[in-house]
Task: structure prediction
Amino acid sequence: MPGENLSRDEARERAALLSVDGYEVSLDVRSAVGGDTGDGPLTFRSVTTLRFRCNEPGASSFADLIAPSVTAVSLNGRDLDPSEVFDGSRILLEDLAADNELVVDAQCAYSRTGEGLHRFVDPEDGEVYLYTQYEPADSRRVFANFEQPDLKAPFRFEVRAPEAWTVWSNGAGQAQDGVWRFAETKPISTYITCVVAGPYHYVTDSYERVFEDGTRLEIPLGALCRKGLARHFDADDVFLVTKQGLDFFHDHFDYPYPFGKYDQAFVPEYNLGAMENPGLVTFREEYIFRGKVTQASYEARANVILHEMAHMWFGDLVTMEWWDDLWLKESFADFMGSFSLVGATRFTDGWITFANRRKAWAYRADQLPSTHPVTADIRDLQDAKLNFDGITYAKGASVLKQLVAYVGQDAFLEGARRYFKRHAYGNTRLGDLLAVLEETSGRDMGAWARSWLQTAGVNSLTPQVVLGADGRIEELAVIQEAAGSHPELRPHRVVVGLYQRSQVGALERYARAETDVAGARTVVSELAGADAPDLVLVNDDDLTYCKIRFDETSLATLREHLGGLTDPLARALCWSALWNLTRDALLPARDFVGLVLRFAGRETDIGVLQMLHAWAESALVHYAAPQWRETGGRALAEGALAELRQAEPGSEHQLAWARFFATAASAPDDLELLKGLLDGSEEIAGLKVDQELRWAFLEPLAAHGVADEKALAAELARDDTASGKRHQVRCLAARPSAAVKARAWEQVVDSDALSNALVEATIAGFGQSSQRELLAPYAPRYFEAIERVWTERSIQIGMDVVRGLFPALQDSPETLRAADAWLTAHEGAAPALRRLVLEARDDLARTLRGQECDAAAGTSAG
Result:
């Protein structure tokens, strides 16, 4: 048997042979408080009873289980020898009957990587917390099963836990004689089952809804977090967004929430943003804010709450058959997150964030060599793990936004309603969704799907303006281009906006046309005769998914008057377009940095401002010519400090500029200011330096050798919490010392002692842009180590190491050649590993092109 990496062909063969009637899973997690063992992994007992049918009696198949040991296996009353049927990841099932009962008694391992049943010991009070995370295929680390999304079944869980604990699962639970028993679920996939256990702080509420037919729906609500975070937990706001979301989806989906209760658990050391387990959604606990944050953080949390809620219908009620159609849940949830955010909550500018932040993720992913159609070719579970990417989420959501513009919102939502009712508790493919959309819209969805869902790459749209002798527009056309590797020219529904400067300097739209763009050149006849524009925005209102380009006049206008754009969405779209020009080596990095310094202080949308800060830092670190970095860094630090001092005291803009100043600070005077803000000898009116901001200030001090190990230990004593420990670990790894770097490398690459969260923190601290020479010896060591790491470690840790330690800061042709040499010499390496290296290699090549562009600009300016 080929092991852990289940293939699509194997899954299809098993689904054709078997159907599942139900699971009974019994877990005993009392060992979680017993402490670590010195001679192997800490384990818990897992007993699974699995009832299933086989339509070819006498045939053979297998069940999935990853466990250190199996105590007993029984198939249809026959005791099987575990040493003969269990190979560490699969249980061989031979001579199946028409109706079967499999009982597996195993010792499964607690996880420290966030995969399976994760065990966390809180350093603040020594309490132990457990939670599960499975997607795409880690429930087999907790109980025996058929680990594929199309073998759905009802689940009944029971958990024996320490007496002082509370336990939660997908269904409602009750405790008796130390055992928690949970109501049977509806038929669901294995990867969305869930258990959370420990002395969590728990808050309750309820949601009620009376439908037009008089039917009453009551949903018990719960929210939980570690006890140490209880004082920071604003559960009321979580419940507010939850109720607003339930109202919105009931209004639009015409299908009542089907999974009983609705708990939301904020858990430690979580690898993802959140997971849509029905009845028990799990979130990373960083969404509980320990200090002051901007409204962008609250908006992001609300978006994630709504994204996961949309999954209750798109993904949980109706589930994709295999991971090829992962977009059927993730693209829809990503779109619905913003759609409901704007339609139901206080965050009415959610589409600006979507245009500025989510699409940036998609544009990058869609230009990598690993880009793929929204409906992807997923050969196996490793492919599936890597496909939770910017294509599946953000591009897919952008495509759905385009689809709404194409078929109309009413037809789109009616299609969703029919889809739920037709396929409830079942599994679907692309064609099932297209069928209902064809019914409701009257359009042929085949051609649309081929262009948007079954081809890869992003198009560029550029305006072409011809003025007549009278100074008015004689002809305005949109030029569509595609990369040679992905030449598809798609149909786009766009708004073309024309902007002029007013007498007071504002840049405002005075004409618009909504039209369909198709082919290489489309004339927008509606705008002929309009006054000459200062700016043409070809995807105004952000209806389609494309890279916006500018004609020469428009680009010149933005260089001088970007801050005058009064519409925040238009402004965000222009910033995004300018960033894409920078990444594509069409705009020098120093020009982008200059635009940020000139106009970011006038940005009203806090989320856009924080994105600009991230882009400016990336422009300097990666795309600026090396000889200009010091000049550019000094300019960014000076500009950030000036904006910090000018910002309204106590405002979120002041907080954003304070954090950006910390990332840019490197000069002695700047570092002294940060020290003074920490010890109270310096003050900026209105700026409260809370614990989270203290750590933000300490990292640059550590990276530049100002804060030593003793200072960081003192700060941890001040903030002796799980969050504080992560911050300290990151800062310790950031120090400019060869010994420090060697220790960090050993802890991450050569040892598996650190948890997933501390691996992440160590990697984040290790790669400081000011320490390129110090990090140079690790470039060859990286290529020597990654195949071993991929083989020996869990896929999550492997991904973290391969992505996080790629020598991107050794931005030279030599590093590019080293990456190419590794790829040539390792053609037989795991495809998922090769994909990660290919992506990092492509980013490095893009970095070098950007630096050439910036250096040329410096030469011409000189």
DSSP finds 28 helices and 28 strands in the chain. Residues 204 and 222 are 4 Å apart (CA to CA).
